[in-house]
Design goal:
The structure holds two protein chains of two kinds. Chain A is about 80% helix and about 0% strand. Chain A is mostly helical. The mean pLDDT of chain A is about 90.
Chain lengths: ~180, ~40
């Protein structure tokens, strides 16, 4: 739980951030947005993959299966495939600007997956449990578990931010 | 100690998850550091 939940939340936050960067890149043509987009794609892909793997390892003892095609798991898998597609696009074009524009467009199209992932447990009959942090209510997790979860979330956020910024630094050094 | 490692019978899953996480996140850190070093030198 202390890895799966923060990774899952961060995978969606990363994609949402990429959506904002894509908008900035396409509308205002700020090159730094494209630089950050590249690093965020790799980090997001790894976080999503980790969320899926740790979720499977959690699901086996809890549900009796590593995988099931329920709404939450399937939509998170689609998010991972989107990230993989973004990484493939990065190296598919000779011109960097064209690659970044293609990545930005795919990111904006893929943003529809985020509310699907988030609300899937409400919209469909899923094996995956519902939200433990309902809006406007007390969290459903006990405090003894909430604090370590918060610490892991902050830690993984800082690690992800560091990685994205360092990869952006590499990209800027190459240019 | 063996009781702690057993994690209530879920030890196999818990330690597998932690192990994979360490490999993936540690690999990311190593890859990023190595890439920055190479880019800084060239």
């Amino acid at each position: 739980m202390y890895i799966h939940v923060p990774c899952a939340i961060l995978s969606m936050l990363c994609f949402a951030t990429m959506g904002v960067l894509s908008t900035i890149l396409l509308i205002w043509r700020v090159q730094l947005a494209g630089v950050l987009l590249r690093g965020a794609g790799l980090v997001g892909c790894l976080l999503t993959g980790l969320a899926l793997i740790t979720g499977s390892l959690w699901g086996r003892p809890m549900w009796g299966t590593f995988w099931i095609w329920d709404a939450r798991l399937t939509s998170e898998l689609i998010l991972w495939l989107l990230y993989v597609a973004l990484l493939a696009i990065q190296s598919s074009f000779q011109r960097r600007a064209v690659a970044e524009r293609a990545m930005a467009i795919l990111t904006l199209v893929g943003l529809i997956d985020l509310p699907i992932i988030h609300y899937s447990v409400n919209w469909w009959n899923t094996l995956h449990q519902g939200s433990s942090f309902p809006l406007g209510q007390k969290p459903l997790i006990d405090g003894a578990m909430l604090w370590p979860l918060g610490v892991m979330f902050v830690g993984l956020s800082l690690l992800s931010t560091w990685a994205v910024l360092q990869l952006a630094r590499v990209e800027l050094l190459k240019r | 100690m063996s009781v702690w490692f057993a994690m209530g019978g879920y030890g196999m899953y818990v330690w597998s998850a932690y192990g994979i996480s360490v490999i993936v996140l540690g690999g990311l850190v190593c890859y990023v550091r190595r890439t920055v070093q190479h880019a800084s030198r060239s």
